[in-house]
Amino acid sequence: MDTFCIAAGAPNAEAAHAWINWILIPENSIQDLEYHGYHTGMKDMEKLITELAPDLVKGEIIFFSAEEVKTMHTQVLNTSIDRLVDILNKAKSKAGA
Fold it and tell me: Which one, out of 36, 37, 58, 69, has a CA that is 20 to 30 A from the CA of 30?
């Protein structure tokens, strides 16, 4: 799933809002899914595809089964995430990434 945000003080915030509004039009969102292979997170996306693009192949990687969703959990973001990012950055640096 993709996420979109507009940084505070962005020079073209109005254009960014217009683009987000455009990508959230179901037909555009479906076209984007077909191109990138992941969806925008719109509510009822599977239903929209069934209605608007019934021939679109929906891969297992795009939509998870109920059993897979049961294994997922959310993560609380706190100050420990900064430590994790530092550790990962150091590991990448050592690996030459």
Answer: 69
Please state the domain extents for the chain.
13-95
Q: Report the predicted TM-score, pTM, of the whole model to 2 decimal places.
A: 0.63
Instruction: Collect all residues with Cβ–Cβ distance below 8 Å to 89 and sequence separation of at least 6.
Output: none
For residue 30, the Cα-to-chain-centroid distance in whole angstroms is 13
31: number of Cβ within 10 Å: 15
pLDDT in the model for residue 80:
87
Q: What are the φ and ψ backbone dihedral angles of 17, each rounded to 5 degrees?
A: -60, -40
